[in-house]
Model the fold of this input.
Amino acid sequence: MPHPPLPGIPAWLWPRAAAGPGRLLMLDYDGTLAPFQLDRDKAFPHPRSIALVRQIGEGRRTSLAVVSGRPIEALDRLLGPLPAAWLVGEHGWESRSPDGQLVLHPLAEPAGRALREAAARLVERGWGHCLEAKRTALMVHTRAFSARKASEVEAECDRIWRERALSPQLRRARVDGGLELRARGHDKGTAVSELVGLSEPGTLAVYLGDDETDEDAFAAVRESGLGIRVGDRPRPSLALGRLESWDEVAEFLERWRDEVERSAAGAGSNS
Ligand SMILES: [Mg+2]
Done:
């Protein structure tokens, strides 16, 4: 059966991915592989997409990575076994290779202290119930609120953080579903650069993501391939490609399996 058209994907991608010396396919988790859920602990991957990711991984022609702001242990629980893939958590502050080697980049004490202080300020003011404290970031979750209330809560938490000058070691951003305060030093862009650096020269790198934090990755991937933004709301982006929805992500992965992975079966392995 022919694949449905994906108008946001440049046509050159498919033949280049199929014929090139190597392929690196990197996927953000929330909003890209997994539809958003009010209960974040139940944001499991789109069933069709995760099945295709496993098939692509088994093909061994494509190096796979899941790149997320979530810690790796949360990704493990939600993704289930994904033995052929790199997992990158906490926006690049931790990674695990397909052979199981875990790297945790240490957080400098001033940044850790600044995060603890920022968390304490929100808890003091009654916003602890919205707060997720990770090793290298804080997230104020507002997806449960109406759009108006979410915007008010984010503005209020942002104001509380800015009452005292924020440490220059921290970076804050409005993201889909909340407000985030992250340690500077590693981000999805540095994660992409590291993965590209580990790949064979000439590898085509493709990164799919939906959010503000993925823009670092879209910038980093431009030299060696293509960023693809997932979402139907127009906004400025460094991504050159676009998929409108989670269903289109599944279509993209199916086409990758059929045209990139399978079409060149027997042409060699990049493993
Ligand atoms: Mg996302």
The CA atoms of residues 227 and 240 lie 6 Å apart. The chain has eight helices and twelve strands. The two ends are 29 Å apart (CA to CA). Residues 109-183 form one domain.
